[in-house]
Amino acid sequence: MSVLSLPKERNVTPLHAFIASMLASLREEGVLNYAIVTRAMENVGKKLLNIYSFSNNPKEAILEANRLLRFAEQLSVEEDTLHLYVKVTTRSCNICPKAVGGLELPGRLCPLVGFFSGITGLKPDLENTGREGGYCKIVLSKM
């Protein structure tokens, strides 16, 4: 898929492309890593929570934020007593620094992990978060 086909294929807005490309470029310049993105996006999540008053229910807050910001067309949230599991179909993520922003360096840089942590108050479980087949799984700990 070429970068020019992304708006049609994934419903990527210019703002989505800007965010993904900015993250990718900052990483390629060596001024950004996954830990910094996760922490910074947690702060962004907290700020947007104050502005938009997402639900106090973590699952609903993530779904509300996705409806508002249109991160992904195919995003689901499941939970058990200890964790919240966010699954994003990889091909539907509109702000992926790799697929949308063109990042070619190895490693993770997903901004959604920290953002969802910020709006829910849950701690990211980075060991269990990552890509699995055709989707990216974000695990947030309730403990």
In short:
The protein is an alpha+beta fold and 143 residues long. The chain has five helices and five strands, in the order ααααββαβββ.
- Poorly predicted tracts of residues: none
What do we call the CATH topology? Muramoyl-pentapeptide Carboxypeptidase, domain 2
Helix % is 40-55%
Radius of gyration: 14 Å
Structural class: alpha+beta
What's the helix-strand series? Answer: HHHHEEHEEE
Total tally of structural domains = 1
**What is the helix tally?**
5
Largest sheet: 5 strands, antiparallel
Per the principal axes of the C-alpha atoms, what is the gross shape? globular
Mean pLDDT: 92
The total of beta strands comes to 5
Detailed description of the structure:
- It is a single chain.
- The protein is of the alpha+beta class and 143 residues long.
- It has a single domain, classed as 2-Layer Sandwich (Muramoyl-pentapeptide Carboxypeptidase, domain 2).
- Helices cover 42% and strands 17% of the residues.
- The protein is built from five helices and five strands, in the order H-H-H-H-E-E-H-E-E-E.
- It has helices at 6-10, 14-28, 34-52, 58-69, 112-120, and strands spanning 75-79, 83-89, 123-124, 130-132, 135-141.
- Strands 1, 2, 3, 4 and 5 form a five-stranded antiparallel beta sheet that branches.
- Strand 4 and strand 5 form a beta hairpin.
- Helix 3 (34-52) crosses helix 5.
